[in-house]
């Protein structure tokens, strides 16, 4: 065999290396074995099944009982939404769940909400009677927004605690920007990297002690410092990003873990362990209580929330003045 022929074979094989990112057995096959897509961190099929099961437990009552975190974040999102002095005809609620944010909308602000969610059971959990505005429910994947709506078609897109399960967050933000009309609004909230740090730390220490190593049990989340950059890269302008925390007290770690399951917030990291030894969990519970327990015997759980506002560029938007064009010296003011 000639060296030239061998080189062609090697080059041909090299073109097919790393055909697709890490895919679990439950994930759909890649569209092409020569296409490299976004790195797959989460198994979206398993996440959909988790949320479907959570919404079906006891006819949805278990799911409604643990709405407290999302309802609180939706309330805080609504405060920011009401600060925007504009009336909207239709908004798109991306990753709406049963409608935590849309239930708070009033007719003097919005006429209709289009709710989009990948879990059809969760999407249809609550009746239309609980909404003041008209609602339209669309079963669709948040990662493929442009397959659901047309470009430049939406006045506003909101997202309440769903983007932390998206594999390609930069791509999702780009799609949201494309879906908006010029001068359209994006208002979102997602969990930040310090969410459930108490549980994460306790599980890691317990695993090191009992098993000699650690494995991921809590999903990786976006660092707050990255959100502004991601919004800017997606093409948004006039950005506003702020951070808040929701702290919840539980009798012990066990109640926290049970509530997370009822929320549909179980771990779906690809390559995760599917079980944890009972003695490791018992050790984690003891560590949790020892490190973070309060005087009344409860343990806190911290949910860090990143709120973001961005606008699609438009010619009529306010723009900053050119550098050096100011007429007032700050020294005179201060």
Automatic annotation (TrEMBL):
Cellular component, GO annotation: mitochondrion
One GO MF term attached to the UniProt entry: methyltransferase activity
Protein name: S-adenosyl-L-methionine-dependent methyltransferase
Record-level GO BP terms: methylation; mitochondrial respiratory chain complex I assembly
UniProt entry keywords in alphabetical sequence: Methyltransferase, Transferase
Pfam families attached to this UniProt entry: Methyltransf_23
Coiled coil stretches, renumbered: none
Keyword Chloroplast: no
């Amino acid at each position: 065999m000639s060296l030239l022929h061998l080189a062609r074979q090697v080059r041909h094989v090299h073109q097919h290396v790393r055909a697709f990112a890490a895919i679990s057995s439950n994930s759909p096959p890649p569209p092409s074995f020569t296409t490299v897509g976004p790195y797959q961190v989460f198994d979206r099929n398993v996440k959909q099944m988790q949320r479907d099961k959570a919404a079906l437990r006891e006819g949805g009552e278990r799911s409604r009982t643990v709405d407290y975190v999302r309802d609180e974040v939706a309330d805080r999102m609504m405060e920011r939404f009401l600060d925007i002095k504009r009336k909207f005809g239709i908004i798109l609620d991306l990753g709406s769940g049963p409608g935590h944010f849309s239930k708070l909308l009033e007719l003097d602000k919005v006429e209709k909400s289009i709710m989009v969610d990948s879990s059809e059971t969760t999407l249809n959990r609550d009746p239309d009677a609980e909404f003041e505005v008209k609602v339209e429910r669309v079963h669709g994947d948040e990662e493929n927004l442009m397959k659901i709506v047309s470009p430049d078609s939406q006045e506003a897109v909101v997202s309440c605690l769903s983007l932390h399960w998206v594999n390609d967050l930069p791509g999702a933000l780009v799609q949201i920007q494309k879906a908006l009309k010029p001068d359209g609004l994006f208002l979102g909230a997602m969990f930040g990297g310090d969410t459930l740090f108490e549980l994460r730390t306790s599980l890691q220490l317990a695993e090191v002690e009992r098993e000699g190593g650690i494995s991921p049990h809590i999903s990786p989340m976006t660092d707050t410092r990255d959100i502004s950059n991601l919004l800017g890269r997606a093409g948004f302008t006039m950005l506003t990003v702020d951070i808040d925390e929701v702290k919840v007290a539980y009798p012990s770690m066990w109640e926290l873990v049970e509530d997370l399951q009822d929320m549909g917030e179980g771990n779906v990291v690809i390559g995760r362990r599917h079980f944890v030894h009972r003695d490791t969990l018992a050790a984690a519970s003891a560590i949790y209580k020892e490190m973070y327990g309060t005087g009344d015997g409860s343990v806190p759980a911290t949910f860090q929330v990143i709120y973001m506002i961005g606008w699609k560029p438009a010619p009529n938007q306010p723009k900053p003045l050119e550098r050096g064009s100011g007429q007032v010296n700050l020294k005179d003011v201060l």
